[in-house]
């Protein structure tokens, strides 16, 4: 009787990487969420104009788009792990320096630096998950998606009390510690011995893969495969419309509620609830995406909730507000599914790097139009009816793109089809 070698334990040799992935998730939204609740304090101290405040709301998505796109060529040249260390250090430095900024231009400039590091981290995480956890893409994506939701929900609750007790500069700067701590596991991965890294590569090689391997085509070939793929463009548009709605709600929800007659101090609490409600979907969405032939029905369910929340804000924003907030909080839950699909729909980590950069670069560029465009439309019309109707219409674009993005194809795989899936009809 032939003895078969025991399968490797699913997490052995990869716990440091898993810790690094989760800690990066905790750092990815802090620079965005920590300022909004204390914006009045910052504005009074560094003399931010109304135009600069509006620019501050647009900077996150634009930084994610620009610097996320730059992460791909940098990672190809120096490696995923060193690039992640550099991104985390960059975000921490930016947070410290903007906390010490004495002028509005300096505050904006150092905010861009902090967000640049986080934008690079956004793009680097999916291919790192693909590289180290090809057999656990769903659960690991779920783990860092939960951490990302926490990084969005906690700062609005903590920022104001800390600012009142110690000043807004401490409230802004203390979050740099998260970036520093998040960098430590990746430093360990980078500096560990050649033998240890070879052992880790062997563990990953022996792990079962959900996608068939593909012939490496090189940097130009990978880019050509991704940028010419209808699947990649559908994922980018889906990501963009989902992020556009999310960042528009973050930018304008407090003002929508104040205009409806609610007290001005409730905005931070409702924004925290909006972020927290993404946690359940972050836990189960990526796992289901890895198991389902197509996660499109899940996306449709989330969009229906989102649409119902918009309708509630249109018809009765001051009554039933808690219901509308719950529905709005569930709405953007396609986000962790899209992150999982970056790894699930690529045959190699190299393709995942390019796809992640393309989807998030294009997606965040589209999302950047949301807060600014909706604000301009509100200024032109004087109420929130037209802006909310536009957001409802864009949900239709999201659903149409998601139908194509969720099809079980694999970029760079044999026949561009997910293994085990039925042949797609023409």
Automatic annotation (TrEMBL):
GO molecular function: transmembrane transporter activity
Domain of life: Bacteria
Entry annotated with the keyword ATP-binding: no
PROSITE patterns according to UniProt: MFS (PS50850)
Residues annotated as transmembrane: 49-71, 83-101, 107-125, 137-160, 172-195, 230-250, 270-289, 296-316, 322-344, 351-378, 384-403
InterPro entries in the cross-refs: MFS, MFS_Cyanate_Porter, MFS_dom, MFS_trans_sf
Keyword Nucleotide-binding: no
Membrane topology per record: Multi-pass membrane protein
GO-annotated cellular components: plasma membrane
Protein name per the record: Major facilitator superfamily MFS_1
């Amino acid at each position: 009787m032939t003895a078969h070698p025991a399968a490797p334990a699913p997490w052995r040799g990869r716990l440091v990487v898993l810790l690094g992935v989760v800690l990066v998730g905790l750092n990815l939204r802090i620079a965005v969420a920590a300022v909004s609740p204390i914006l009045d304090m910052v504005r009074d101290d560094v003399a931010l104009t109304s135009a600069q405040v509006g620019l501050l709301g647009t900077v996150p998505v634009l930084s994610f788009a620009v610097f996320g796109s730059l992460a791909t060529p940098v990672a190809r040249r120096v490696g995923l792990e060193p690039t992640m260390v550099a991104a985390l250090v960059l975000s921490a430095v930016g947070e410290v320096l903007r906390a010490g900024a004495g002028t509005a231009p300096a505050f904006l400039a150092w905010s861009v630096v902090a967000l640049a590091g986080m934008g690079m981290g956004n793009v680097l995480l999916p291919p790192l998950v693909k590289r180290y956890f090809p057999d656990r893409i769903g659960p690991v994506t779920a783990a860092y998606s939960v951490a990302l939701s926490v990084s969005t929900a906690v700062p609005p609750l903590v920022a104001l009390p800390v600012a009142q007790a110690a000043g807004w500069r401490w409230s802004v700067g203390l979050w740099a510690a998260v970036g520093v701590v998040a960098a430590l596991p990746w430093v360990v991965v980078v500096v560990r011995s050649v033998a240890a890294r070879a052992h880790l590569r062997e563990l990953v090689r022996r792990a079962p893969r959900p996608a068939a391997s593909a012939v490496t085509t090189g940097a130009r070939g990978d880019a050509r495969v991704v940028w010419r793929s209808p699947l990649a463009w559908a994922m980018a548009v889906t990501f963009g419309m989902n992020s556009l709605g999310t960042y528009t709600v973050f930018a304008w929800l407090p003002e929508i509620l104040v205009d409806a007659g609610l007290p001005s101090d409730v905005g931070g609490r409702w924004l925290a609830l909006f972020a927290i409600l993404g946690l359940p979907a972050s836990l189960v969405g990526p796992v289901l995406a890895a198991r389902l032939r197509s996660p499109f029905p899940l996306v449709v369910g989330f969009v229906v909730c989102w649409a119902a929340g918009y309708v509630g804000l249109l018809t009765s924003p001051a009554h039933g507000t808690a219901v509308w907030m719950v529905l709005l909080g569930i709405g953007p839950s396609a986000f962790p599914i899209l992150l999982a699909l970056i790894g699930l729909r690529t045959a190699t980590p190299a393709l995942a790097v390019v796809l992640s950069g393309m989807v998030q670069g294009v997606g965040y560029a589209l999302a950047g139009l949301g807060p600014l465009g909706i604000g301009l439309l509100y200024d032109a019309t004087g109420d929130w009816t037209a802006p909310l109707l536009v957001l409802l219409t864009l949900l239709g674009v999201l659903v149409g793109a998601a139908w194509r993005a969720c099809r079980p194809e694999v970029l760079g795989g044999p026949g561009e089809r997910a293994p085990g899936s039925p042949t797609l009809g023409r």
